[in-house]
Amino acid sequence: DAKTTQPNSMESNEEEPVHLPCNHSTISGTDYIHWYRQLPSQGPEYVIHGLTSNVNNRMASLAIAEDRKSSTLILHRATLRDAAVYYCILSETGTASKLTFGTGTRLQVTL
Amino acid sequence: DTAVSQTPKYLVTQMGNDKSIKCEQNLGHDTMYWYKQDSKKFLKIMFSYNNKELIINETVPNRFSPKSPDKAHLNLHINSLELGDSAVYFCASSHRGQGVGGYTFGSGTRLTVV
Q1: pLDDT (tens digit per residue) in B7-37
Q2: Cβ B108–A42 below 8 Å, yes or no?
Q3: Which residues numbered 70-89 in A keep a CB inside 8 Å of some CB on B?
């Protein structure tokens, strides 16, 4: 699985936008970009995924660079409940597809 | 209704014992997984089953044996438990090919071996 690089931690003020970066310079053409988050004492939670085009859903937006070597998860208005570890993961589709988690970015949200 | 449910939530047992963790999903997914999260918070895949067939078996000791009686259930049996098996075990499910809708994880089973 191709590797991703994320900052260890980030901080944000509540109700401000948060941009979480991810570098994946060795991404292959068939790799999807996934974002998951893990709140304290819970299992990972799906946030968003994309292949080439930017994606929006009710939780977040995913901006993918034109060369696909980096992406950014955008939380439009951070709340205290968004404090979690955010994982950027590359994964191919296919019979033996799997998510390989890295260390992620720990997001702190303050009042 | 809980989408992916695991039981028990907590499990404390002595070294050498055999224990099982159960997982059930009601999402109609055809693929299920077991992940292990150790004390350093690294999440690693252990097994993956698609329609009751084992398709991913990472480097896991033979003491760990998954069983899938049907595509909605994936249980994990662990023989001769060791201290190093202490971790949080997460069950997950998805549609095969995983591009559709992502993976759904359970809330975890915290296993403590004493």
Answers
A1: 999 999 999 999 999 999 999 998 999 999 9
A2: yes
A3: 85
Look-up of token digits 């993961």:
A89
Query: HSE of A31 in the Cβ direction (CA atoms, 13 Å)?
Result: 24
User: Do you know the residue count of chain B?
Assistant: 114
Tens of pLDDT, residue by residue over A57-109, are 999 999 999 999 999 999 999 999 999 999 999 987 665 577 889 999 999 99
Q: Would you call B103 and A46 a contact, using CB atoms and an 8 Å cutoff? A: yes
Rounded distance between C-alpha atoms, residue A104 and residue B54, angstroms: 28
What whole-number distance in Å separates Cα of residue B39 and Cα of residue A55?
34
Judge contact between B66 and B34, C-beta under 8 A. yes
What is the secondary structure of B66-114 as a DSSP string?
EEEEETTEEEEEE-S--GGG-EEEEEEEE-TTSTTT--EE---EEEEE-
